[in-house]
Amino acid sequence: MTTKILALTDALGNLVRFRLMPGHRFDTVGVAPLIDGIKFGALLADKAFDSNDIVADLNERGAKIVISQHPRRARPIPLDAEMYKWRHLIENFFCKLKEFKRIAMRACKTDRSFEAMIHLAAAVINSR
Predict the structure, then answer these.
(1) In whole angstroms, what is the distance from residue 118 CA to residue 87 CA?
(2) Can you give the pLDDT of all 128 residues of the chain as single tens digits?
(3) Are 63 and 43 in contact (CB under 8 A)?
(4) Angle, helices 88-97/111-127, rounded to nearest 10 degrees
(5) Alpha carbon distance 94, 107 (integer Å)
(6) DSSP 8-state secondary structure symbol assigned to residue 105
(7) Cα–Cα distance measured from residue 6 to residue 17, given in angstroms and rounded to the nearest whole number
(8) What is the distance between the alpha carbons of residues 11 and 55, in angstroms, rounded to a whole number?
(9) Comparing C-alpha atoms, which of 126, 60, 61, 63 is closest to residue 93?
(10) Which DSSP category does 20 fall into?
(11) Closest by alpha carbon to 44, among 6, 88, 14?
């Protein structure tokens, strides 16, 4: 069984919200519920989140789009390269999260207990 973790972090790399997705689903499916009701100035993401729906939603919100472009995009969106460098914070969060063996190996049998372990691990990470 595979599970994807979609996470939203703040500007310091601290977990704000996350969603669990089946491993076979596209990442873009979980973005709308992940950012629903949260105000932010920019969204930093990788190529997996480059979709017209996400870009349109961010434009409606007035948020800056800092998403690495998929090479087949017809009309490229300008990318702020300096701001994109800060995407390492989310990568660092996932590296720290996977230091916890139960999360890295998906040892929990249910989604609810797996979510609880992610919350616990995030609390430990934030306390360091």
Answers:
(1) 20
(2) 578 899 999 989 899 999 998 878 777 788 888 888 899 999 998 888 888 888 889 999 999 989 888 788 888 888 888 998 898 988 999 999 999 998 988 888 899 999 999 999 999 999 98
(3) yes
(4) 110
(5) 17
(6) T
(7) 9
(8) 20
(9) 126
(10) E
(11) 88
pTM, two decimal places: 0.82
| Residue entry with tokens 């998906």 | 106
DSSP secondary structure letter of residue 69: P
Q: Nearest CA to 82 among 48, 50, 44, 47? A: 44
Which tokens hold the place of 98?
């996977």
CA distance 50 to 37: 21
Q: Nearest 5 degrees, angle CA 32-CA 123-CA 13?
A: 55
